[in-house]
Amino acid sequence: MAPVSLVVIGAGQRGTGYARWALSHPTRAKVAGVAEPREVRRARFAAEHGIAAEHAASDWRQLADRGRIADAVLICTQDRMHAEPAEAFAALGYHILLEKPMAPDEAACRRIVAAVENARVMLAVGHVMRYMPYTQAVKEVVDSGQLGDIMSVQHLEPVGFWHQAHSYVRGNWRRADLAATMLMAKSCHDLDWLQYILGRAPLRVSSFGSLTHFTAANRPAGAADRCVACAVEASCPYSAPRLYRDLLDQGRHRWPLSAVIEDFSSAALDEALRDGPYGRCVYACDNDVVDHQVVALEFPGATTATFTMTAFSKAADRQTRLFGTRAELTGDGQTIRVYDFLTRAERLITPAPAGPMTAAHGHGGGDAGLMDAFTTAVATGDPALIRSGPRESLASHLAVFAAERARLNGTVETIPPHPELRRALFRTGPGPSRPIRPGGR
Ligand SMILES: NC(=O)c1ccc[n+]([C@@H]2O[C@H](COP(=O)([O-])OP(=O)(O)OC[C@H]3O[C@@H](n4cnc5c(N)ncnc54)[C@H](O)[C@@H]3O)[C@@H](O)[C@H]2O)c1
User: Fold this and answer.
1) How many of the other CB atoms lie within 10 Å of CB of 65?
2) Which atom of ligand 1 is nearest to the CA of 38?
3) Mean pLDDT in order along the chain per 10 residues (441 residues)
4) CA dist 433 to 113, 252, 388, Å?
5) How far is the CA of 141 from the centre of ligand 1 (A)?
6) Is the CB of 128 inside a 6 Å radius of any atom of ligand 1?
């Protein structure tokens, strides 16, 4: 079977990472084109993949103007730049891997689903947690029925103090109007994961949370607008020089340092800390997304769940407890423990180690798992290999929108029943009514 050909829209952190999977799996996929406005990124990416000059564009529209030059497209632009290219490349007949969130508003998410279904192309949304070996191990336990009926769920996303400061106070996802809400930007993964593990979409949600700590009101006396000029930097846990200099000194030339500087030199870092967004005091930024939030959910079958995201933790993997009528499952992102009420014995499950759930480590095998599933689906024309298709991804995005409405309005939101989504979740329905286009051109 010929390798699947890909074009990449946005040669940033995600686009570069997915494309490297292709480099290390040359029999499976080959990158044939790129669109990226930043010259240094485009040139580096084109050289790494041997992309012909005519297929290296500075804007996705230029690449789209060339018609269908590959089997599939990886759309890895920022959150507010997903829907337009997704609609355009679907109309051209490309199969699509679209980074999450699909889009920051419900109408655009629905337009994407309509576009891929009308064009009869496959869509895989970047819900990489569905593809982690750890997730598969949790799902196997749940689907086996060992837990009995799951009555309660407790799920925690400990974002971590430095990760929050990097991405959600100083960085690209600090403001909902520039990117998405915190729940959508970070925790759409978590609501999607709960839906996937339980095999059903929630019915009702409520939520509380706010931006409380990373505000001007908490700025310490004597703090400057930039860490490099700050008299109290040494006592601040959120010091930018400490975070990024340590990474540079340790030679960790990848995310998050790669979001701050292109050239991994001390001079480039000095300049970024002096002039760039990542050198700002965390109490003097233009951020507005929440730094802690809780969501309460009710699922069909009277299952209740709570989800907590917090900035105020050691950066760690997600932690989950599933409380069933016959057993309790505890998972910390690496190992799973199942305590059986009948035998009173605890079973330890250790899925093949795939590393931490962070972007720097490929999300615990999730990034590679998604690329593996997506390229195989395109090569074989089998959309069933994609676990994060249009309808299940739309369903979990709808839960996020509902939770955010609940937080803002102080309401309990009922998520309207979507029979077509529920069929897709349980894979009992007919799926798309028309056949999927074959992978090859
Ligand atoms: N699945 C995950 O777990 C995960 C993790 C992190 C980020 N993300 C999502 O992935 C997406 C990309 O994030 P990132 O960190 O790689 O961002 P990034 O900023 O590093 O990369 C985006 C790239 O798009 C480029 N771009 C801008 N305009 C363009 C245009 N008109 N045509 C082509 N390219 C254009 C930018 O120059 C940039 O290089 C975001 O939506 C983000 O939320 C997903």
Assistant:
1) 11
2) 37
3) 95 97 97 97 98 97 97 98 98 98 97 97 98 97 98 98 98 98 98 97 97 98 98 98 97 95 97 98 98 98 97 96 98 97 97 76 90 98 97 96 98 79 46 50 42
4) 14, 48, 18
5) 35
6) yes
Distance of alpha carbon 122 from alpha carbon 120, whole angstroms: 7
| The dihedral formed by the CA atoms of 60, 66, 70 and 72, expressed in degrees to the nearest 10 | 40
Candidates 18, 62, 77: which one to mutate for ligand 1, based on the most atoms within 8 Å of Cβ?
Answer: 77
96 bridge partner residues: 73, 123
Percentages helix, strand, coil for the chain (3-state, rounded to 5) are: 40, 20, 40
Q: Where are the beta strands (DSSP E) in 317-399?
A: 319-324, 327-331, 336-340, 346-349
Considering the entire predicted model, what is its pTM?
A: 0.94
Check pocket membership of 126 for ligand 1, CB cut-off 6 A: yes
Q: How many Å apart are CA 202 and CA 200, to the nearest integer?
A: 7
Which residue minimizes the CA distance to atom 38 of ligand 1? 12
Whether residue 3 contacts residue 19, with contact meaning beta carbons closer than 8 Å, is answered with no
Distances (CA, A) of 11 to 41, 179, 180, 202, 322: 6, 18, 20, 35, 38
Give the C-alpha separation, 66 to 415, whole Å: 41
Place of tokens 């505000």: 215
